[in-house]
């Protein structure tokens, strides 16, 4: 074995260890983390490519459109979201367990970024989305607008029927535009990087307990730069307190 081959194997082992700890790192961040070893970005990119290594990213979109379902226009463009329950949003992501994938839906208040409700299922039907929606309404009231993508779960008559029954305006992202629901997309990245990839859940029960713990942390303890380093719960509930004080004054 040549000296170059030995050095490459040493670099490969270090890269694999870095990706074990930080599975979401791309080659640039891996190179930065290992710069004290004298490895360059070019070398890291070549070794990762040769070994078939890459950063783990969540899939961007799971829900598929159904041509027979009615689609609704996107209502949030240019909108000033300035109070809780003005706009809620929902999205679906997948989580890999030993027995296969399960699916997670979450409903978020866009003003505060608070996760209002969530549900998991081993199938991609509409029922677990409707369950999360009903729970959110039961505990937090009725939003003015509800935004989703054009997936069949959200365009189904059963799901939109709940929204229409409560007089909630329906907004849907443009086709293929994940950026329209960017806050929930960011939630997925945070969840997967900060919890899922680190804990490697094996069963639905383990996952449920882990999600309950993480979403509680996310709402009550995790500081958000976009919220002035406040937490979602602080922003959500303080807005109601401020409105009450304004009315009393």
Quick recap:
The protein is of the alpha/beta class and 249 residues long. The chain contains nine helices and five strands; from the N terminus they run αααβββαβααβααα. It folds into two domains: 3-51; 87-243, Ribonuclease H-like superfamily/Ribonuclease H (Nucleotidyltransferase, domain 5, 2-Layer Sandwich), CATH 3.30.420.
E-strand count? 5
Given helix and strand content, the structural type is alpha/beta
Number of helices: 9
**Number of structural units classed as domains:** 2
Order of helices and strands: HHHEEEHEHHEHHH
What is the rounded Rg?
Answer: 21 Å
**What portion of residues is helical?**
40-55%
CATH class of the largest domain: Alpha Beta
Q: For the terminal residues, how far apart are their CA atoms?
A: 81 Å
- Overall pLDDT confidence: 85
Across the major sheet, the strand order is: 3-2-1-4-5
Work out the strand percent. 5-15%
Molecular shape: elongated
What is the CATH architecture assignment of the largest domain? 2-Layer Sandwich
CATH superfamily of the largest domain: Ribonuclease H-like superfamily/Ribonuclease H
CATH topology of the largest domain: Nucleotidyltransferase, domain 5
Low-confidence stretches: 244-249
Largest sheet: 5 strands, mixed
């Amino acid at each position: 074995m040549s000296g170059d081959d030995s050095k490459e194997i040493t670099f490969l082992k270090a890269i694999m260890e870095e990706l074990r700890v930080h599975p979401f790192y791309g080659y640039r961040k891996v190179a930065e983390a290992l710069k004290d070893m004298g490895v360059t970005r070019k070398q890291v990119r070549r070794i990762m490519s040769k070994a078939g290594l890459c950063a783990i990213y969540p899939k961007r979109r799971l829900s598929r459109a159904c041509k027979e379902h009615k689609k609704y226009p996107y209502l949030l463009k240019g909108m000033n979201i300035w109070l809780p329950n003005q706009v809620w949003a929902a999205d679906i992501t997948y989580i890999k367990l030993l027995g296969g994938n399960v699916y997670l839906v979450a409903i978020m208040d866009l003003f505060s970024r608070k996760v209002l409700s969530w549900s998991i299922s081993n199938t991609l039907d509409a029922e677990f989305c409707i369950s999360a929606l009903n729970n959110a309404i039961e505990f937090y009231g009725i939003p003015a607008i509800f935004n989703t993508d054009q997936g069949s779960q959200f365009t189904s008559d059963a799901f939109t029927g709940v929204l229409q029954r409560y007089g909630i305006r329906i907004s849907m992202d443009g086709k293929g535009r994940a950026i329209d629901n960017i806050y929930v997309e960011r939630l997925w990245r945070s969840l997967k990087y900060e919890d899922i990839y680190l804990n490697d859940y094996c069963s639905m029960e383990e996952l449920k307990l882990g999600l309950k713990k993480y979403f509680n942390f996310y709402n009550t303890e995790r500081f958000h730069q976009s919220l002035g380093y406040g937490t979602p719960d602080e922003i959500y509930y303080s807005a109601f307190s401020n409105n009450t004080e304004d009315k009393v004054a």
